[in-house]
Amino acid sequence: MKRNAGLVIAIDGVVGSGKTSTAREVARVLGYRHLDTGAMYRAATLAARQAGVAAAETAALADLLSRIRITLLPQHQGGAVLLDGRDVSHRIRSPEITRAVGAYADLPLVRRALIAQQQRLGAEGGVVAEGRDIASVVFPDADLKIRMVADLRARALRRFRELTEKGVSISLEDVVTDIRQRDAEDAARDYGTCAPPTDVIELDTTGMTLNGQVEHIVSLARQRGA
Ligand code: DC
Fold first, then answer.
1. 43-99: pLDDT as tens digits
2. Which of 74, 111, 179, 195 is the least crowded, having the fewest Cβ atoms under 10 Å away?
């Protein structure tokens, strides 16, 4: 589909497949906006926790969602995630939010609000949108749809290195257990998908580097006119 600002590239993938770093870098190379939908669910969860609104309090949650403003700054402006103008990029990745986000992301009222915002942000094209339901629900007519997979061991090793570099002390086996659990949660979650998305290109990143993944997707995007 022809859009004014470029293609809509949809990237989905399993936990630890490297989709966020890859999507961010593809967006930077192409000069596109990185639409990290997971960050939006995380920011909404942070807002609810700060306001003391539990996932079960649907009326209060609907009211809160109508009042908050989630902004994803473009890469050339630093790429931060803002909640009502405040930079929450780090806070939304805390273990507390990671544990809590599933309960909020499961709610149709939360999904409806955030999906509407995501579709507005992508309407003109020029986006690399990333998330579990991106190719099936948010942008079923995306110009390029990628699903990133990798074997469990490779995903655990990447996450383990990332955490160790940040100074977090954790065993590889605990990382494996955590990824297994998040895989199971993902498999059980209803993303509102009626049918599996069509035209999806599966990219197995098990033996690939971040640069390799980015080059591969950028070259597919260029073939489609990016
Ligand atoms: O990709 P991530 O770990 O930042 O995602 C955070 C949470 O939000 C995770 O529980 C999955 C959920 N999510 C979702 O339900 N729909 C999306 N499009 C993206 C993320």
1. 999 999 999 999 999 999 999 999 999 999 988 888 999 999 999 999 999 989 988
2. 195
Could you identify the atom of ligand 1 that is nearest to the CA of residue 134? 18
Contact criterion met (CB below 8 Å) for 92 and 86:
no
Separation between Cα atoms, residue 214 and residue 222, nearest integer Å: 12
CATH number of the CATH domain containing 23:
3.40.50.300
Ligand 1 mean position to 208 CA, how many Å?
Answer: 23
3-class DSSP state for residue 112? helix
Please, are residues 158 and 148 in contact by the beta-carbon 8 Å criterion?
Answer: no
Asked whether residue 226 is assigned to any structural domain, the reply reads: no
| pTM of the model as a whole | 0.91
Q: Using a 6 Å cutoff on CB, does residue 140 contact ligand 1?
A: no
Range of the domain at 42: 8-218
How many domains does the structure of the chain reveal?
1
Alpha carbons 108 and 187: distance in angstroms, whole number:
17
Distance CA 66, CA 64 (A): 5
**Cβ burial, residue 113 (10 Å; 0-12/13-18/19+):** buried
* Residue to mutate (ligand 1; options 91, 101, 107; most atoms within 8 A of CB): 101
- 163, part of any domain: yes
